[in-house]
Protein backbone atom coordinates (compact mmCIF):
# COMPACT_ATOMS: atom_id res chain seq x y z
CA UNK A 1 0.00 0.00 0.00
CA UNK A 2 1.12 3.53 -0.73
CA UNK A 3 0.44 6.57 1.45
CA UNK A 4 0.94 10.15 0.37
CA UNK A 5 1.57 12.30 3.46
CA UNK A 6 1.00 16.00 2.84
CA UNK A 7 2.88 18.24 5.29
CA UNK A 8 6.20 17.11 6.76
CA UNK A 9 6.22 19.01 10.03
CA UNK A 10 6.14 17.91 13.64
CA UNK A 11 3.29 15.48 12.96
CA UNK A 12 3.54 14.57 9.28
CA UNK A 13 7.19 13.58 9.33
CA UNK A 14 7.09 11.21 12.33
CA UNK A 15 3.83 9.73 11.03
CA UNK A 16 5.38 9.17 7.60
CA UNK A 17 8.41 7.53 9.24
CA UNK A 18 6.29 5.20 11.38
CA UNK A 19 4.20 4.01 8.42
CA UNK A 20 7.36 3.63 6.33
CA UNK A 21 8.94 1.53 9.03
CA UNK A 22 5.83 -0.67 9.08
CA UNK A 23 6.45 -1.46 5.42
CA UNK A 24 4.26 1.06 3.57
CA UNK A 25 5.55 2.95 0.56
CA UNK A 26 5.46 6.58 1.64
CA UNK A 27 5.82 9.73 -0.38
CA UNK A 28 6.03 12.76 1.85
CA UNK A 29 5.02 16.08 0.31
CA UNK A 30 6.02 19.50 1.50
CA UNK A 31 5.98 22.98 -0.01
CA UNK A 32 9.50 23.64 1.28
CA UNK A 33 12.29 22.64 -1.10
CA UNK A 34 14.72 22.65 1.80
CA UNK A 35 12.63 20.14 3.77
CA UNK A 36 12.21 17.88 0.73
CA UNK A 37 15.92 17.92 -0.18
CA UNK A 38 17.15 17.30 3.33
CA UNK A 39 14.68 14.46 3.83
CA UNK A 40 15.79 12.77 0.62
CA UNK A 41 19.31 12.86 2.05
CA UNK A 42 18.03 11.11 5.17
CA UNK A 43 18.24 14.27 7.28
CA UNK A 44 15.53 16.04 9.22
CA UNK A 45 14.79 19.65 10.08
CA UNK A 46 13.08 19.18 13.45
CA UNK A 47 14.20 17.86 16.80
CA UNK A 48 12.36 14.81 18.13
CA UNK A 49 13.66 11.92 20.19
CA UNK A 50 14.55 8.92 18.00
CA UNK A 51 13.38 10.53 14.76
CA UNK A 52 16.76 11.14 13.07
CA UNK A 53 17.68 7.46 13.30
CA UNK A 54 14.28 6.25 12.14
CA UNK A 55 14.15 8.62 9.17
CA UNK A 56 17.66 7.71 8.09
CA UNK A 57 16.73 4.05 8.12
CA UNK A 58 13.46 4.33 6.15
CA UNK A 59 15.00 6.67 3.57
CA UNK A 60 17.82 4.17 3.09
CA UNK A 61 15.40 1.26 2.61
CA UNK A 62 13.51 3.38 0.07
CA UNK A 63 10.22 3.22 1.99
CA UNK A 64 10.19 6.98 2.53
CA UNK A 65 10.97 9.65 0.01
CA UNK A 66 9.99 13.29 -0.27
CA UNK A 67 8.55 15.32 -3.12
CA UNK A 68 7.26 18.81 -3.79
CA UNK A 69 4.13 17.44 -5.47
CA UNK A 70 1.61 14.75 -4.46
CA UNK A 71 1.37 11.45 -6.33
CA UNK A 72 -1.27 8.80 -6.82
CA UNK A 73 -1.62 6.62 -3.72
CA UNK A 74 -4.09 4.43 -1.84
CA UNK A 75 -4.28 6.73 1.16
CA UNK A 76 -3.76 10.48 1.46
CA UNK A 77 -2.90 11.82 4.87
CA UNK A 78 -3.00 15.58 5.48
CA UNK A 79 -0.95 16.96 8.36
CA UNK A 80 -0.59 20.68 7.74
CA UNK A 81 -0.81 23.47 10.32
CA UNK A 82 -4.03 25.22 11.31
CA UNK A 83 -2.92 28.51 12.85
CA UNK A 84 -5.18 31.27 14.13
CA UNK A 85 -5.71 34.66 12.54
CA UNK A 86 -5.02 37.83 14.53
CA UNK A 87 -8.69 37.91 15.55
CA UNK A 88 -8.34 34.36 16.97
CA UNK A 89 -10.44 32.76 14.24
CA UNK A 90 -9.17 29.49 12.78
CA UNK A 91 -7.08 29.64 9.62
CA UNK A 92 -7.95 26.49 7.69
CA UNK A 93 -6.34 27.67 4.46
CA UNK A 94 -3.51 25.13 4.60
CA UNK A 95 -6.03 22.31 4.97
CA UNK A 96 -7.99 23.71 2.03
CA UNK A 97 -4.94 24.03 -0.20
CA UNK A 98 -3.59 20.61 0.82
CA UNK A 99 -6.97 19.05 -0.05
CA UNK A 100 -7.03 20.85 -3.39
CA UNK A 101 -3.46 19.76 -4.10
CA UNK A 102 -4.34 16.06 -3.93
CA UNK A 103 -7.52 16.31 -6.02
CA UNK A 104 -5.74 15.73 -9.40
CA UNK A 105 -4.26 12.48 -8.05
CA UNK A 106 -7.41 10.99 -6.52
CA UNK A 107 -8.85 7.71 -7.76
CA UNK A 108 -12.04 5.90 -6.78
CA UNK A 109 -11.50 3.90 -3.58
CA UNK A 110 -8.94 6.31 -2.10
CA UNK A 111 -8.99 7.17 1.59
CA UNK A 112 -8.34 10.78 2.56
CA UNK A 113 -7.45 11.41 6.19
CA UNK A 114 -7.04 14.82 7.81
CA UNK A 115 -4.86 14.72 10.92
CA UNK A 116 -4.57 18.49 11.31
CA UNK A 117 -6.56 19.89 14.22
CA UNK A 118 -9.66 21.53 12.75
CA UNK A 119 -12.73 23.42 13.97
CA UNK A 120 -15.91 21.36 14.41
CA UNK A 121 -17.66 20.54 11.09
CA UNK A 122 -14.61 21.27 8.90
CA UNK A 123 -14.67 17.76 7.38
CA UNK A 124 -18.36 17.94 6.48
CA UNK A 125 -18.57 21.62 5.54
CA UNK A 126 -15.18 22.34 3.93
CA UNK A 127 -13.18 19.21 3.02
CA UNK A 128 -16.03 17.05 1.66
CA UNK A 129 -17.37 19.80 -0.66
CA UNK A 130 -13.90 20.27 -2.23
CA UNK A 131 -13.77 16.57 -3.12
CA UNK A 132 -17.38 16.59 -4.32
CA UNK A 133 -16.80 19.62 -6.53
CA UNK A 134 -14.00 17.67 -8.19
CA UNK A 135 -16.66 15.19 -9.30
CA UNK A 136 -16.27 12.47 -6.66
CA UNK A 137 -18.99 10.91 -4.57
CA UNK A 138 -17.89 11.09 -0.90
CA UNK A 139 -20.30 8.27 0.04
CA UNK A 140 -18.97 5.50 -2.18
CA UNK A 141 -15.94 6.69 -4.11
CA UNK A 142 -13.64 8.63 -1.79
CA UNK A 143 -13.57 7.85 1.93
CA UNK A 144 -13.01 10.89 4.17
CA UNK A 145 -12.01 10.81 7.81
CA UNK A 146 -10.60 13.04 10.50
CA UNK A 147 -8.06 11.28 12.68
CA UNK A 148 -6.71 13.89 15.07
CA UNK A 149 -3.09 13.53 16.09
CA UNK A 150 -2.71 13.28 19.86
CA UNK A 151 1.03 12.90 20.33
CA UNK A 152 3.10 14.80 22.82
CA UNK A 153 6.21 16.48 21.39
CA UNK A 154 9.21 14.78 22.93
CA UNK A 155 7.35 11.43 22.99
CA UNK A 156 5.96 11.42 19.48
CA UNK A 157 7.38 8.11 18.26
CA UNK A 158 6.14 6.28 21.35
CA UNK A 159 2.72 7.91 21.45
CA UNK A 160 2.08 7.43 17.71
CA UNK A 161 2.06 3.72 18.35
CA UNK A 162 0.69 3.53 21.88
CA UNK A 163 -2.08 6.15 22.08
CA UNK A 164 -5.69 5.29 21.39
CA UNK A 165 -6.74 6.82 18.08
CA UNK A 166 -10.08 8.36 17.26
CA UNK A 167 -11.15 8.08 13.64
CA UNK A 168 -14.14 10.16 12.62
CA UNK A 169 -15.51 9.32 9.20
CA UNK A 170 -17.90 11.43 7.15
CA UNK A 171 -19.61 8.04 6.65
CA UNK A 172 -19.39 4.83 8.74
CA UNK A 173 -17.57 3.04 5.89
CA UNK A 174 -15.02 5.84 5.68
CA UNK A 175 -14.43 5.58 9.43
CA UNK A 176 -13.85 1.84 9.14
CA UNK A 177 -11.53 2.08 6.15
CA UNK A 178 -9.44 4.87 7.70
CA UNK A 179 -9.37 3.08 11.08
CA UNK A 180 -7.99 -0.04 9.38
CA UNK A 181 -5.05 1.99 8.10
CA UNK A 182 -4.13 2.93 11.68
CA UNK A 183 -4.82 -0.56 13.00
CA UNK A 184 -1.88 -1.79 10.97
CA UNK A 185 0.57 0.31 13.05
CA UNK A 186 -1.18 1.37 16.28
CA UNK A 187 -0.91 -1.03 19.21
CA UNK A 188 -3.85 0.27 21.20
CA UNK A 189 -7.49 0.83 20.40
CA UNK A 190 -8.62 2.60 17.22
CA UNK A 191 -12.13 3.92 17.76
CA UNK A 192 -14.52 4.72 14.93
CA UNK A 193 -16.93 7.64 15.19
CA UNK A 194 -18.41 10.53 13.16
CA UNK A 195 -16.15 13.29 11.85
CA UNK A 196 -17.63 16.07 14.00
CA UNK A 197 -17.30 13.99 17.18
CA UNK A 198 -13.64 13.34 16.41
CA UNK A 199 -13.08 17.05 15.72
CA UNK A 200 -14.73 18.05 18.96
CA UNK A 201 -13.06 15.41 21.15
CA UNK A 202 -9.61 16.46 19.96
CA UNK A 203 -10.36 20.11 20.74
CA UNK A 204 -11.74 19.23 24.16
CA UNK A 205 -8.63 17.24 25.12
CA UNK A 206 -6.43 20.27 24.71
CA UNK A 207 -9.06 22.59 26.17
CA UNK A 208 -9.29 20.36 29.25
CA UNK A 209 -5.55 20.71 29.75
CA UNK A 210 -5.58 24.46 29.11
CA UNK A 211 -8.39 25.06 31.61
CA UNK A 212 -6.66 22.92 34.24
CA UNK A 213 -3.36 24.74 33.77
CA UNK A 214 -5.24 28.03 34.12
CA UNK A 215 -6.51 26.80 37.48
CA UNK A 216 -2.94 26.02 38.56
CA UNK A 217 -1.75 29.41 37.34
CA UNK A 218 -4.55 31.13 39.24
CA UNK A 219 -3.49 29.20 42.32
CA UNK A 220 0.09 30.47 41.82
CA UNK A 221 -1.14 34.06 41.85
CA UNK A 222 -3.38 33.48 44.87
CA UNK A 223 -0.54 31.73 46.72
CA UNK A 224 1.88 34.59 46.15
CA UNK A 225 -0.71 37.02 47.45
CA UNK A 226 -1.41 34.93 50.55
CA UNK A 227 2.18 33.83 51.17
CA UNK A 228 1.46 30.15 50.64
CA UNK A 229 3.69 27.74 48.68
CA UNK A 230 1.57 26.76 45.66
CA UNK A 231 3.75 23.73 44.88
CA UNK A 232 3.28 22.28 48.32
CA UNK A 233 -0.48 22.95 48.07
CA UNK A 234 -0.63 21.10 44.75
CA UNK A 235 1.44 18.21 46.07
CA UNK A 236 -0.85 17.77 49.06
CA UNK A 237 -4.16 18.33 47.25
CA UNK A 238 -3.08 15.79 44.62
CA UNK A 239 -2.85 13.13 47.34
CA UNK A 240 -6.64 13.02 47.00
CA UNK A 241 -7.50 10.18 44.63
CA UNK A 242 -9.72 12.33 42.41
CA UNK A 243 -7.70 15.55 42.33
CA UNK A 244 -5.05 16.32 39.74
CA UNK A 245 -4.06 19.97 39.85
CA UNK A 246 -1.69 20.77 36.98
CA UNK A 247 1.58 22.70 37.21
CA UNK A 248 1.72 26.50 37.16
CA UNK A 249 4.29 28.03 34.84
CA UNK A 250 5.27 31.02 32.72
CA UNK A 251 2.22 30.55 30.49
CA UNK A 252 0.87 28.06 27.99
CA UNK A 253 2.57 27.83 24.64
CA UNK A 254 2.95 25.63 21.65
CA UNK A 255 0.82 25.20 18.65
CA UNK A 256 -1.94 23.23 20.37
CA UNK A 257 -3.11 24.27 23.81
CA UNK A 258 -2.64 27.96 23.12
CA UNK A 259 -4.61 27.71 19.87
CA UNK A 260 -7.20 24.93 19.88
CA UNK A 261 -9.59 26.36 22.50
CA UNK A 262 -10.20 29.31 20.17
CA UNK A 263 -11.61 26.89 17.56
CA UNK A 264 -14.39 26.08 20.02
CA UNK A 265 -14.82 29.65 21.24
CA UNK A 266 -15.25 30.84 17.64
CA UNK A 267 -18.15 28.45 17.07
CA UNK A 268 -19.86 28.94 20.45
CA UNK A 269 -18.92 32.36 21.83
CA UNK A 270 -21.76 32.73 24.33
CA UNK A 271 -21.52 29.17 25.61
CA UNK A 272 -17.79 29.14 26.38
CA UNK A 273 -17.03 31.69 29.15
CA UNK A 274 -14.90 29.26 31.19
CA UNK A 275 -12.74 28.33 28.20
CA UNK A 276 -12.31 32.00 27.35
CA UNK A 277 -11.31 32.93 30.89
CA UNK A 278 -8.76 30.10 30.98
CA UNK A 279 -7.15 31.50 27.84
CA UNK A 280 -7.02 34.97 29.43
CA UNK A 281 -5.42 33.63 32.63
CA UNK A 282 -2.79 31.63 30.77
CA UNK A 283 -2.08 34.56 28.47
CA UNK A 284 -1.54 36.77 31.52
CA UNK A 285 1.30 34.65 32.89
CA UNK A 286 4.18 36.29 30.96
CA UNK A 287 3.22 39.64 32.56
CA UNK A 288 3.07 37.94 35.94
CA UNK A 289 6.60 36.58 35.48
CA UNK A 290 7.87 40.00 34.40
CA UNK A 291 6.24 41.56 37.49
CA UNK A 292 8.02 38.98 39.63
CA UNK A 293 11.36 39.84 38.02
CA UNK A 294 10.65 43.50 38.71
CA UNK A 295 9.88 42.73 42.36
CA UNK A 296 13.10 40.74 42.76
CA UNK A 297 15.23 43.50 41.26
CA UNK A 298 13.57 46.55 42.81
CA UNK A 299 16.73 47.61 44.64
CA UNK A 300 18.98 47.37 41.59
CA UNK A 301 19.53 50.19 39.10
CA UNK A 302 20.38 48.22 35.95
CA UNK A 303 20.19 44.53 36.67
CA UNK A 304 21.37 41.93 34.17
CA UNK A 305 18.70 39.28 33.67
CA UNK A 306 19.72 35.89 32.28
CA UNK A 307 16.83 34.08 30.62
CA UNK A 308 17.20 30.30 30.56
CA UNK A 309 14.98 28.56 28.02
CA UNK A 310 13.00 30.05 25.14
CA UNK A 311 11.02 27.05 23.92
CA UNK A 312 7.39 26.57 24.88
CA UNK A 313 8.30 23.63 27.09
CA UNK A 314 11.27 21.49 28.07
CA UNK A 315 13.47 19.24 25.91
CA UNK A 316 12.12 20.40 22.56
CA UNK A 317 13.31 23.00 20.03
CA UNK A 318 9.91 24.54 19.29
CA UNK A 319 9.47 28.25 20.03
CA UNK A 320 5.99 28.57 18.50
CA UNK A 321 3.61 30.59 20.70
CA UNK A 322 6.26 30.38 23.38
CA UNK A 323 5.50 32.39 26.52
CA UNK A 324 9.25 32.36 27.19
CA UNK A 325 9.91 34.37 24.03
CA UNK A 326 7.20 36.81 25.05
CA UNK A 327 8.78 37.17 28.48
CA UNK A 328 12.21 37.72 26.91
CA UNK A 329 10.79 40.45 24.70
CA UNK A 330 8.92 42.12 27.54
CA UNK A 331 12.02 42.12 29.73
CA UNK A 332 14.23 43.33 26.87
CA UNK A 333 11.89 46.22 26.13
CA UNK A 334 12.42 47.56 29.64
CA UNK A 335 15.40 49.95 29.42
CA UNK A 336 16.22 49.26 33.08
CA UNK A 337 17.20 45.66 32.29
CA UNK A 338 20.11 44.17 30.41
CA UNK A 339 18.68 40.88 29.12
CA UNK A 340 20.51 37.88 27.67
CA UNK A 341 19.08 34.49 26.77
CA UNK A 342 20.51 30.98 26.67
CA UNK A 343 18.81 27.89 25.30
CA UNK A 344 20.74 24.76 24.33
CA UNK A 345 17.85 23.61 22.09
CA UNK A 346 17.36 26.82 20.08
CA UNK A 347 19.39 28.00 17.09
CA UNK A 348 20.12 31.64 16.28
CA UNK A 349 17.97 31.52 13.13
CA UNK A 350 14.86 30.71 15.19
CA UNK A 351 14.91 34.01 17.05
CA UNK A 352 15.37 37.66 16.13
CA UNK A 353 18.15 38.36 18.61
CA UNK A 354 21.53 36.93 19.44
CA UNK A 355 21.62 34.01 21.84
CA UNK A 356 24.22 33.87 24.58
CA UNK A 357 26.30 30.92 25.73
CA UNK A 358 25.72 29.63 29.24
CA UNK A 359 28.90 31.38 30.36
CA UNK A 360 27.97 34.69 28.74
CA UNK A 361 24.49 34.50 30.24
CA UNK A 362 25.55 33.91 33.82
CA UNK A 363 28.56 36.26 33.84
CA UNK A 364 27.75 39.17 36.18
CA UNK A 365 24.01 38.47 36.00
CA UNK A 366 21.76 39.51 38.88
CA UNK A 367 18.80 37.20 38.26
CA UNK A 368 18.50 33.93 36.31
CA UNK A 369 14.96 33.31 35.10
CA UNK A 370 14.27 29.70 34.16
CA UNK A 371 11.47 29.46 31.61
CA UNK A 372 11.78 25.91 30.25
CA UNK A 373 12.31 22.64 32.09
CA UNK A 374 15.08 21.31 29.84
CA UNK A 375 17.00 18.40 31.38
CA UNK A 376 20.14 20.56 31.14
CA UNK A 377 18.54 23.01 33.58
CA UNK A 378 17.28 20.38 36.00
CA UNK A 379 20.87 19.28 36.51
CA UNK A 380 22.27 22.74 37.25
CA UNK A 381 24.18 23.11 40.50
CA UNK A 382 25.03 26.13 42.61
CA UNK A 383 28.57 26.11 41.15
CA UNK A 384 27.12 26.69 37.68
CA UNK A 385 25.89 30.07 38.90
CA UNK A 386 29.19 31.02 40.52
CA UNK A 387 29.87 33.85 38.06
CA UNK A 388 26.61 35.67 38.80
CA UNK A 389 26.84 39.01 40.53
CA UNK A 390 23.93 38.19 42.84
CA UNK A 391 22.84 34.58 42.90
CA UNK A 392 19.09 34.92 42.50
CA UNK A 393 17.11 32.36 40.51
CA UNK A 394 13.45 32.59 39.54
CA UNK A 395 12.45 29.06 38.54
CA UNK A 396 9.08 29.38 36.82
CA UNK A 397 8.96 25.66 35.99
CA UNK A 398 9.76 24.38 39.48
CA UNK A 399 12.39 22.17 37.86
CA UNK A 400 15.63 22.95 39.68
CA UNK A 401 16.88 21.48 42.93
CA UNK A 402 19.39 24.18 43.80
CA UNK A 403 20.22 24.66 47.44
CA UNK A 404 22.94 26.59 49.17
CA UNK A 405 23.52 29.43 51.58
CA UNK A 406 24.62 31.96 48.99
CA UNK A 407 21.87 31.32 46.41
CA UNK A 408 18.25 32.45 46.54
CA UNK A 409 15.81 30.35 44.55
CA UNK A 410 12.26 31.60 44.04
CA UNK A 411 9.51 29.66 42.32
CA UNK A 412 6.40 30.88 40.59
CA UNK A 413 3.64 30.55 43.18
CA UNK A 414 6.17 30.81 46.01
CA UNK A 415 8.28 33.91 46.41
CA UNK A 416 9.55 32.92 49.85
CA UNK A 417 12.97 31.29 49.97
N1 LIG B 1 2.03 23.31 30.81
C1 LIG B 1 1.89 23.92 32.05
N2 LIG B 1 1.51 23.17 33.13
C2 LIG B 1 1.23 21.84 33.02
C3 LIG B 1 1.37 21.21 31.75
C4 LIG B 1 1.75 21.97 30.67
O1 LIG B 1 2.11 25.13 32.20
O2 LIG B 1 0.90 21.23 34.04
C5 LIG B 1 2.38 24.10 29.63
C6 LIG B 1 3.67 23.68 28.93
O3 LIG B 1 4.79 24.23 29.53
C7 LIG B 1 3.44 24.20 27.53
C8 LIG B 1 1.93 24.04 27.34
O4 LIG B 1 1.40 23.91 28.65
O5 LIG B 1 3.75 25.57 27.42
C9 LIG B 1 1.53 22.84 26.52
O6 LIG B 1 2.33 21.71 26.82
P1 LIG B 1 1.78 20.23 26.92
O7 LIG B 1 2.91 19.38 27.32
O8 LIG B 1 0.58 20.20 27.77
O9 LIG B 1 1.25 19.88 25.50
P2 LIG B 1 1.67 20.07 23.97
O10 LIG B 1 1.10 21.35 23.48
O11 LIG B 1 3.11 19.85 23.77
O12 LIG B 1 0.85 18.84 23.33
C10 LIG B 1 -0.55 18.77 23.53
C11 LIG B 1 -0.92 17.37 24.05
N3 LIG B 1 -2.31 17.36 24.49
C12 LIG B 1 -2.70 16.84 25.69
O13 LIG B 1 -1.91 16.39 26.49
C13 LIG B 1 -4.16 16.85 25.97
C14 LIG B 1 -0.67 16.35 22.96
O14 LIG B 1 -1.13 15.07 23.36
C15 LIG B 1 -1.40 16.78 21.67
O15 LIG B 1 -1.18 15.88 20.61
C16 LIG B 1 -0.86 18.12 21.26
O16 LIG B 1 -1.16 19.05 22.29
C17 LIG B 1 -1.51 18.55 19.96
O17 LIG B 1 -0.84 18.49 18.93
O18 LIG B 1 -2.69 18.91 19.96
UniProtKB/TrEMBL annotation:
Keywords: NAD, Oxidoreductase. The keyword Cell division does not apply. One of its GO terms (biological process) is polysaccharide biosynthetic process. GO terms for molecular function: NAD binding; oxidoreductase activity, acting on the CH-CH group of donors, NAD or NADP as acceptor; oxidoreductase activity, acting on the CH-OH group of donors, NAD or NADP as acceptor. Residues 306-402 form the UDP-glucose/GDP-mannose dehydrogenase C-terminal domain. It comes from the Bacteria. Signal peptide: none annotated. Belongs to the UDP-glucose/GDP-mannose dehydrogenase family. This is UDP-N-acetyl-D-mannosamine dehydrogenase. It comes from Robertmurraya siralis. The lineage of its organism: Bacteria, Bacillati, Bacillota, Bacilli, Bacillales.
Amino acid sequence: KKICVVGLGYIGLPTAAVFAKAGYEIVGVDVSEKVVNSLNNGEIHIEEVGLPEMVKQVVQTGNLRASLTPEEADVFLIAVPTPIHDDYSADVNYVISATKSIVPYLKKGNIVIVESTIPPRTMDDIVAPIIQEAGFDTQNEIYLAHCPERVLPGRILIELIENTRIVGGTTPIAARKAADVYRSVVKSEVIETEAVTAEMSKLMENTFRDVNIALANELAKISQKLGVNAHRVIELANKHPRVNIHQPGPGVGGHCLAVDPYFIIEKAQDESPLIQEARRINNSMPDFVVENVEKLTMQLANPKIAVFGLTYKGNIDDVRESPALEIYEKLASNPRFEVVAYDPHVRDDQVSFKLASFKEATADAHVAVILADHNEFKQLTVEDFAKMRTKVVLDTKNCTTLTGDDIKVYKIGDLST
